[in-house]
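quick q for whoever's on today - can somebody do inverse folding on this one?? i tried earlier but teh output was garbage lol. tokens:
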């Protein structure tokens, strides 16, 4: 979960959690008992609401490979980008509640409804959590190679002296990368311009080309280009360094005291999927996440595995939505 300095409304969170848990508890109406017992008997579609190449693709493809023996079926990745993740998410929200369509996304699920007032779905009522798969080991604050600043505080000093001189890219309006960037602006006391793209991969491509100035993004998408010298890393938004980029300091070490931003990643079903199917999928995923080789593979890509229950994940989501509301109150977002 992202780390924010704002206090959440316990009443609001309790209401959100209650709605989510009620939908989960009452989700045993369809399909019929025979279909539940036979689950799964065909391919499962895992919808990623962004272009290919982002961190969710790694999660989906890895779990597909590892879950095939337990499920006896394949899980295909279906990238459906657009509207900051809303198009793919809406597809899942409106899918048949039979367990064969899964949403694979990130903290953006809790930020998009805060900045978009016209979503065609309700993130709590229309989608039910399966499990929180992982937390990020932190986002990387990465800049184009020819940016003059050599470290984080030099960059912040120049941005303070020149409001809106710099811009940052994200995977779209309401994407977790936008919230990371806006939270960075607020914490550092700077003003930079947000440039939305259709996915993480596009934002990174634009950064390497020098057409945008910086991003706060996942290690899985950035580390290769940092190691090859195509972009530069100024800091990581975690409380400790990442072993894949041991020379990159935390933001706190780099001078931005107490700054941390740690997104989450998870799986959701459309509301109405029977709890027996939800539990089977959650338990099969948990077994994979408990494997030492999985923990290492995920950590190497910038994740720390979690494997929560649906109820635990519902609480994380509710807290994040409330915290994002408080952050967004001080920021102007454009749809």
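ok took a stab at it. sequence:
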């Amino acid at each position: 979960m992202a780390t924010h300095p704002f206090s959440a409304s316990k009443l609001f969170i309790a209401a959100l959690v209650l709605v989510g848990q009620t939908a989960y508890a009452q989700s045993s109406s369809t399909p019929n008992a025979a279909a539940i017992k036979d689950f799964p008997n065909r391919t499962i579609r895992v919808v990623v609401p962004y272009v290919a190449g982002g961190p969710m693709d790694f999660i989906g493809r890895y779990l597909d490979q590892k879950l095939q023996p337990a499920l006896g079926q394949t899980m295909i990745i279906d990238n459906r980008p657009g509207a900051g993740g809303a198009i793919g998410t809406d597809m899942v929200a409106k899918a048949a509640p039979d367990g064969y369509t899964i949403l694979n996304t990130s903290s953006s699920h809790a930020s998009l409804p805060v900045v978009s007032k016209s979503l065609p779905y309700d993130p709590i009522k229309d989608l039910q959590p399966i499990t929180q798969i992982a937390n990020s080991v932190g986002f990387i604050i990465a800049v184009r190679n020819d940016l003059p600043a050599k470290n984080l505080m030099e960059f912040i000093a120049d941005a303070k002296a020149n409001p809106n001189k710099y811009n940052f890219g994200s995977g779209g309006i309401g994407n977790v990368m936008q919230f990371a960037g806006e939270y960075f602006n607020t914490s550092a006391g700077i003003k930079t311009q947000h440039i939305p793209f259709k996915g993480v991969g596009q934002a990174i491509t634009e950064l390497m080309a020098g057409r945008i100035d910086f991003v706060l993004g996942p290690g899985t998408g950035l580390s290769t280009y940092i190691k090859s010298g195509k972009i530069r890393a100024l800091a990581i938004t975690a409380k400790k360094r990442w072993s894949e980029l041991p020379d990159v300091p935390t933001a706190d070490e780099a001078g931005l005291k107490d700054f941390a931003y740690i997104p989450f990643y998870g799986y959701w079903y459309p509301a109405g999927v029977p709890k027996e199917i939800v539990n089977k999928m959650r338990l099969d995923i948990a077994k994979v996440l408990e494997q030492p080789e999985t923990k290492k593979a995920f950590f190497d890509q910038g994740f720390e595995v979690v494997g929560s229950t649906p109820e635990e994940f519902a609480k994380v989501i509710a807290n994040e939505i409330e915290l994002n509301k408080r952050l967004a109150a001080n920021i102007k977002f454009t749809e």
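fwiw Confidence is low (pLDDT under 50) at residues 4-9, 21-29. also The CA atoms of residues 204 and 222 lie 7 Å apart. so keep that in mind when u check it
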